[in-house]
Amino acid sequence: MYVPNPPFVSPGDTAWQLTAATFVGLQSVPGLAILYGGLVKKKWAVNSAMMVLYAFSIVLIVWTLWGYNMGFGSPLHLGSGILSNIVGIPQPILNASQEQGRAVIPLLSSGMPAMRMPMSALVFFQFVFAAITPAILAGGVLGRMNFKAWMIFVPLWSTFAYSVNAFMLWGGGWLAQLGAVDFSGGYVIHVAAGISGFVAAAVVGPRLAKDKKDFTANNLLMAVAGAGILWLGWNGFNGGDPYFANTDAAVAILNTNLATAAALLSWVFMDMFSVGKSSVVGAINGMVCGLVAITPAAGYVNGYGALIIGIASGVIPWLTMNKLSETRLFKKVDDTLGVFHTHFVAGALGGLLTGLLADPHVFEYFATGKTSPVSITGLFYGNPQQFLVQLEALLVIVVWDSLVTFVLLKLISLVVPLRLKDPELEIGDSEVHGETVTHDVDDTLNLPLHTPVLDMLSATLQPEE
């Protein structure tokens, strides 16, 4: 039976939203799963990928049962003033009438035209953002966190940290009403994941001393494949956030790739000037920093702004990772993949540079009828207030997410240990999951194992006498 679209639905906008959401989903599964699996020691490849797969799945359940409406629904009035605008009412978004009705964010009053897609498209699009955030956070605790503790932590963190961040900045809450902007998640996702990953690394504790000293990537080509999925998947990340298949979506995608290329090259040059050679891991770090830094600014800056953000995000996180990491605090905290530098520093940098570089001639939405075009003006274009509110929003996200992460982990530690025992850390995947990344090779002798299947294939391939 043919069911026509409701009059408000734009097939183009809806198709792009679902496509963009799929691109973002691919960044987690398989993007981050195989990036992590390639960057860690071989004995942790399965566990690292499994942490991503679990986070992606559990967040979808949380998101549809209560998380989405906490981030984008009607406000939960906890009091007057600020307390009335920090989170939405937790309730499901699974009724047919809700899913198929027009996508709408109740408190949004930014001048955005009415959305031209069903609610289910918006819910799914926002889910993949919610899902990737704890997966990024995992980069700070790879190689030692108890998987059982991770299973408890992710749904709680998504509820009390991510959904609150989303409402305050994207759902029309307190920070949005102050005028702070975050085009596609520099603060809501990357600053949140970066600072929370760093706090989690401090609370969970370090890897084994020998693992911390030598954590050589087990498969750099796999890591490059995962990184490539992240880079191109980011076209959906930033290109989908105007919620329309419009000019600003195209601008955001071009800016994203400009900044990323500039950041990757900047990191490579910094490596070469510092140690005389470039590295694939360094190039991946630079790529990630560029993607992260342009995210809060992608649809607000022009191409020159994107290049400035790209160069800055290749140089400044390189300096913090290679110089700041030598200070006592950073030596004490075992941030496995350096998410503090690649996500917190890069995300904060991008958010603050948005306050400086946002070009009022880059329109997110063009004027229609009696409305005015929607754009953001930064300090360099005459609006110093934008930088100040960007700074305020950054501080709020840092304080809230640090506190939530610390408290949740301390409470979880009363139920299950946060860190695996040393004998389990010695073995890795086979002890935690009963599996290893490969089963056809003896790691000790580096020789193929004799299995019935292999023996049968060997006999089959023998030439006849």
UniProtKB/TrEMBL annotation:
Ranges that cross the membrane: 20-39, 51-68, 121-142, 149-175, 187-205, 217-237, 249-268, 280-298, 304-324, 336-358, 393-416
Xref: SUPFAM superfamilies: Ammonium transporter (SSF111352)
Membrane topology, record value: Multi-pass membrane protein
A cellular-component GO term for this protein: plasma membrane
InterPro entries: Ammonium/urea_transptr, Ammonium_transpt, Ammonium_transpt_CS, NH4_transpt_AmtB-like_dom, RhesusRHD
Keyword GTP-binding: no
Span of domain Ammonium transporter AmtB-like: 15-436
UniProt keyword annotations, A-Z: Ammonia transport, Membrane, Transmembrane, Transmembrane helix, Transport
Predominant cellular place of this UniProt entry's protein: membrane
Superkingdom of source: Bacteria
Subcellular location: Cell membrane; Membrane
A molecular function GO annotation: ammonium channel activity
Family membership noted in the UniProt record: Belongs to the ammonia transporter channel (TC 1.A.11.2) family.
Protein name: Ammonium transporter
Organism in which the protein naturally occurs: Sulfoacidibacillus thermotolerans
